[in-house]
Fold this protein.
Amino acid sequence: MRLAGTLSWAQLRRSLAIARKDIRIYYSKGPVAIFGILFPVFLFLSFLVGRSFTVDFIIPGLLGMILFFTATAISPAVAPWEAQARTLERLMSCPVTVPTIVLGDIVASFLFGLVISLVPLIVGLALGISVSQPVLLALGMVLAAFCFSTLGLLFSAAPSTLPSTTMMLSSMVKFPIVFISGVFISLNELPSWAQGIAYVSPLTYFTDIARTCIQGEGHLSLAADLGALLAFTALSLLVAVKLHQRTMPRRI
Amino acid sequence: MAKRYGTVCAVDGISFEVGIGEFFGFLGPNGAGKTTTVRILTGVIKADAGSATIMGYPAGSLTAKQSAGIVPEMANAYADLSGWQNLMLMSQLYGVPGREARQRASRLLEQMQLLPRKDALARIYSKGMKQRLILSMALVSDPNVLFLDEPTSGLDVQSARLIRDLLRELNGQGKTIFLTTHDMDEASELCHRVAIIRDGRIAAIDAPEKLKLATSTQHSIEISFETTVPEKVLASLPGVHAVKKTGDKYRLYTSAPGEAVVSLVETCRSCGLKIVSLNTLAPTLEDAFVALTGREEK
């Protein structure tokens, strides 16, 4: 047991080394960070222009969308990039497990998503929104950033060495998710069949948490939202690890 | 061990042992199964059948990986990290404590003549510098076993020599070295034993000198003339089995070099041919390789 514990701790530290490497190479570039903010903002504005919404309504949706897009922006392409750059084989031959590599990629994506999502929150606070339950909102942001990052790793599991393939795959899933997750239209205003679809999107639960904490009312209870995010995280983490264990050797 | 890719059998039931402290060469033509074997041994892929152990641990296990340093074929350092950052990353992935990692990294970079460029991004390193950095990355964990897949392929003479000297020194310190190479001279110069793999199977495994003697009874004579000489004239000499033109020289294959040299000199005298150089050559590892693999390396 002690050995297993030491080994797990050692692997966790190696995950953090992989995360630092990812941040240095893929995330800490000006254009990546700027694109991470600008793309969701413009997508959001294109929907809002000509319609009147309160800042309290806009910020939770924008926060959810930026967190979702940034946490899934780079991670789908990391494994194919590494395969193309011929660095993946070296990484795989190091004393690290596939879950360690996957976790490292998730942590980098998680930190990027979390930091960038502070921007719309700060903008919202400057515009006068008030957060009634800041601790729960912070908890929701942390959990959602981790959940969306695991989704990003799920997209990257396709055994391709072409980043364009995994990016296309992720875009095909990400865009429909944004439109069914209560980002642009509150869940309460959706018909029941559309609500049923919304429940299969993890973004729905974070948007609902943000609306509860900022607008003061949500569609589901906070416990249900947090529970659903936890369940999505566990499921996509498990599937991502299993898929990467199968597909990673096929990339080299 | 065996490994298939679809209908292609990349490794077909090979079995061999490498002793602790041995310098072992692994040779074979392109597509013979060398890299697949190395990838199984280093835990990057799994064998379909059979198993391997590294220092007593199952290949692919964390303990086996921990005891090995690896220079994969065509591998790269992280281009957007500096040489120093690449070494620190490897140290962290192998769990080398910080202070020890920094000391080893400094020593290795100095030994590899990379210390003045340690903070430059690896993307601006020359090919020789990159390969020296990759070897440093394999050594920063102070492994007991080193797997090197074509470490000097395509390098300038100076970098290749630096790497060979270092490998010799590391082997002298007791490290086990598993070297995959196309360079027969390199294998002959460095390895205690070599295995030759062909179509996924081990064709021969022995000390280079024994392989040369066992697989090739032919000697050769290398000769160059002031003028061009038709190959058929040389091929018709007594005791000469075959003639091959290599650059400005001719190589005459014979099982009786003494007799062949005498008839060669007499023919040159009678035909008025002026000899520029003449050498008799013992069988080389390359001759053994060609004999065992049945074809010349492209």
Observations:
- Residues 11 and 96 of chain A are 7 Å apart (CA to CA).
- The first helix of chain A runs from residue 2 to 27.
- The mean pLDDT of chain A is 88.
